[in-house]
Amino acid sequence: MSQTQRRFVVARVPTGALTADCFRLEDAPVPEPKEGEVLLRSLYVSLDAANRAWMQGATYRAAVEPGSVMAGGALGEVVASRHPQFKPGELASGDLGWQEYSAVPGKALLKETRVEPLSHLQSVYGITGLTAYFGLLEVGQPKAGETLVVSAAAGAVGNVVGQIGKILGCRVVGVAGGDAKCHWLTETLGFDAAVDYKAGPMYKSLKAACPQGIDVYFDNVGGDVFEAALFQMNARGRIACCGAVSGYDSAPPPHGPRGVPGMIVVKRLTVRGFIVMDFFARRAAALAQLQAWVRDGKIRVVEDVIDGFENLPQALVGLLHGENRGKRMVKVRGQVLH
């Protein structure tokens, strides 16, 4: 069997919106794992707005440069291992990139326990679910009876945040794009209200949906939605800053949110950014709780699985245009080495 694989490299970094031709599909040798490394076959590749942010410059990881393999989280199966903690046939997740096979240092991988379906390891039991769990509980610190607002509420992290908020007894308001998504949030996921950011001035719409103000705002988008929420925060409210997708795939806005310093001081707000890895020491306990909520039917797992490695570029472009509901990922059906 041929020892080659497919991979996507960055052909160019766009100055405006991302397009599929920013990536180039090429054949490459399957790598040989070095001492301490693990060779994995990718099963599911995660698609996230952060993929686009990494093309703009360094964040919590190095920037993705033209000519390099496109970065991205993935779930993989161990093919060969030169690391004592991993054996062939086991599952692991990490930054495997947009390639069918990758050789990754074992210390950079998370060992995964098999569940059915395996896709849940990239959604509710993966970075997505853990981001929602720790971002809301540890940063937002919601209390029963409080009003929780979630932006990008129909997306991967947002829908889980809202569902956890309902479990905890909050009044949950989601912000999403379009009537269909807003209706889905309230009728299918049980949100108390939903605001369509495309329908008109955000401030008025959000005020109507939150007559008692906002106690916790889980921010995935930044920009105008952040500004509208900021001015309606209650005293000692908490803002969990998870992402800023509104600025990832377009030109920077002419101004940032206005009145930020004064509003934070006057209302004694806590505004905190976070990266999910900050909390990984408690990953096992969080997974146990998420699994219990899913098992008991308290969290509905929402996934948008696209079949075929070759569809990765267009799938990311579509995500940035808001096509998905829930966690978008690509299922890889690559050649199996023997």
- The CATH homologous superfamily of the largest domain is named NAD(P)-binding Rossmann-like Domain
Low-confidence stretches: none
As a percent range, the share of helical residues equals 25-40%
Give the total of domains: 2
Kindly report the CATH topology of the largest domain: Rossmann fold
The share of residues in extended strands comes to 25-35%
CATH level 1 class label of the largest domain: Alpha Beta
Textual characterization of the structure:
The chain has two domains: 4-123 and 302-331, Alpha-Beta Complex (Quinone Oxidoreductase, Chain A, domain 1), CATH 3.90.180.10; 127-277, 3-Layer(aba) Sandwich (Rossmann fold). The chain has nine helices and 15 strands. It has helices at 49-54, 127-140, 156-167, 179-187, 202-209, 223-230, 260-266, 283-295, 312-320; strands at residues 4-10, 23-29, 37-46, 73-81, 91-95, 101-105, 110-112, 147-150, 171-176, 193-196, 214-219, 233-241, 270-273, 303-307, 327-331. Strands 3, 4, 5, 6, 7, 14 and 15 form a seven-stranded mixed beta sheet that branches. Strands 10-9-8-11-12-13 form a six-stranded parallel beta sheet, with helices on both faces. Strands 1-2 form a two-stranded antiparallel sheet. Helix 2 crosses helix 3 and helix 2 (127-140) packs across helix 8 (283-295). The longest helix is centred in the middle third of the chain and has 14 residues, at 127-140.
